[in-house]
Amino acid sequence: MADHNATQRGASEPRIDSDKLASDLTERFRQVLSTKRMNELTTRSVQSRSASPAPRDFGTLQPPSQPHNAPPPSYSSLRNIPLIPQAPQDARSVRFKNMLHSLSNMPIRWENPGLLDEALRVVPLEQIYNEAEEESQILQAEAESLGAGKKAAWGYQDCVIRALLRWFKRSFFTWVNNPPCSRCYSPTIAVGMAAPLPDEQARGANQVELYKCSVEGCGSYERYPRYNDAFVLLQTRKGRCGEWANCFSMLCRAVGSRVRWVWNSEDHVWTEVYSVHRKRWIHVDACEEAWDKPRLYTEGWGKKLAYCIAFSADGAMDVTRRYVRNPSKWGLERTRAPEAVVLHIMDEIRAMRRSNLSKQEKFRLEGEDMREDRELRQYVISSIANEVSKITPEDILNGSAATARPDPDAQKALESRTSGSTEWIRSRGEGGRGASNQQNSRDRDHRRDHTR
Ligand SMILES: [Zn+2]
């Protein structure tokens, strides 16, 4: 009943219009979230919300010196060999370092109360909170039916993000490969790059792709400015994975979650959200409406990955092992820098992001890093155990390793590939290196540039 609340108030009071009630509620959500965030921000470091330096600045940035009593490296390379972090020595490693530093700025740009407040004006908060409430009650009931002391699969805030994800993919953001011709609505063909116009540049687009209408008599040109500013994306509401991940991650932050922006060296970006309920980072891909499906890219899309690096306002982490469970099968060779250098770069970015945090806060985050490292190491161990368990006595006698038997987890990831998302992946041209990836290398270069 729409005006259930209104009738409860008694006959003497005027009837309250249900639309008005809904908008009041939404306004209250906004205020609560906004105040909560302000409180967090003021207790946070000044560093993490101060204007981020331009990417170029990092070339000359001195790495923070390692404290004498630095703890042993809290995580190791994919091969689980303990390594001592080492400063980059060669030009290639320095380039990788500068690039990672520059990428690490993305989540800092969301630590802006004005932007986050504006974002909350766009999100249908009441709908999202209602859906989250309903789902978390169902999950709670399911857990209770399994017996006392059983924990719900996901907590309330996880359900908020899940609802946000559904709304974002289904009703808010649009995928655009080639923009259609605005004169005759026909498909267009990529013809290269154009210099940004002043108004495009003012709105943060440094790259503009140019497309030509495929109809001979028309020949119109379409511009596709690649906006990198989450505020602008709230209005344009379209793009490829870069725009999707940028805007969606910012919205997760706006509704009060801790968020990470994950950069992948094979041209993809996505989100991770911290689940307080599960005490771990959860993979979220807005383009795919994927929640906690980290094996999607490898076993699902058949894509090999080299680096997946997660950046947040208070840290950086090489999370490749979460996405590449079986490095011998799905890992690409990591050639951008020696592993000890990658460790060093992560330490450096973390130290920079945390430099103004309190001792307790730093300690808490270090504990979290160590927990996550154990989690990531566990993935590799179970993958190896799984491989070993598939070897049969015949394999040993014949001297061949098992390859034919299916991995049950891989099977699960494959299911998500065949559940109707194939069309979507093909339409996006994101389906890994296999037959579904029809994009030419120039187009891929655009995307690669864009994710930066
Ligand atoms: Zn046309």
TrEMBL record:
<dbReference type="InterPro" id="IPR050883">
    <property type="entry name" value="PNGase"/>
</dbReference>
<dbReference type="GO" id="GO:0046872">
    <property type="term" value="F:metal ion binding"/>
</dbReference>
<keyword id="KW-0479">Metal-binding</keyword>
<comment type="similarity">
    <text>Belongs to the transglutaminase-like superfamily. PNGase family.</text>
</comment>
<protein>
    <recommendedName>
        <fullName>Protein PNG1</fullName>
    </recommendedName>
</protein>
<feature type="region of interest" description="Disordered">
    <location>
        <begin position="1"/>
        <end position="80"/>
    </location>
</feature>
<dbReference type="GO" id="GO:0005634">
    <property type="term" value="C:nucleus"/>
</dbReference>
<dbReference type="InterPro" id="IPR002931">
    <property type="entry name" value="Transglutaminase-like"/>
</dbReference>
<dbReference type="GO" id="GO:0006516">
    <property type="term" value="P:glycoprotein catabolic process"/>
</dbReference>
<feature type="compositionally biased region" description="Polar residues">
    <location>
        <begin position="1"/>
        <end position="10"/>
    </location>
</feature>
<keyword id="KW-0862">Zinc</keyword>
<dbReference type="Pfam" id="PF01841">
    <property type="entry name" value="Transglut_core"/>
</dbReference>
<dbReference type="InterPro" id="IPR038765">
    <property type="entry name" value="Papain-like_cys_pep_sf"/>
</dbReference>
<feature type="compositionally biased region" description="Pro residues">
    <location>
        <begin position="64"/>
        <end position="74"/>
    </location>
</feature>
<feature type="compositionally biased region" description="Basic and acidic residues">
    <location>
        <begin position="12"/>
        <end position="30"/>
    </location>
</feature>
<feature type="domain" description="Transglutaminase-like">
    <location>
        <begin position="233"/>
        <end position="288"/>
    </location>
</feature>
<feature type="compositionally biased region" description="Basic and acidic residues">
    <location>
        <begin position="441"/>
        <end position="452"/>
    </location>
</feature>
<feature type="region of interest" description="Disordered">
    <location>
        <begin position="399"/>
        <end position="452"/>
    </location>
</feature>
<dbReference type="GO" id="GO:0036503">
    <property type="term" value="P:ERAD pathway"/>
</dbReference>
<dbReference type="GO" id="GO:0000224">
    <property type="term" value="F:peptide-N4-(N-acetyl-beta-glucosaminyl)asparagine amidase activity"/>
</dbReference>
<feature type="compositionally biased region" description="Polar residues">
    <location>
        <begin position="32"/>
        <end position="51"/>
    </location>
</feature>
<feature type="compositionally biased region" description="Basic and acidic residues">
    <location>
        <begin position="406"/>
        <end position="415"/>
    </location>
</feature>
<dbReference type="GO" id="GO:0005829">
    <property type="term" value="C:cytosol"/>
</dbReference>
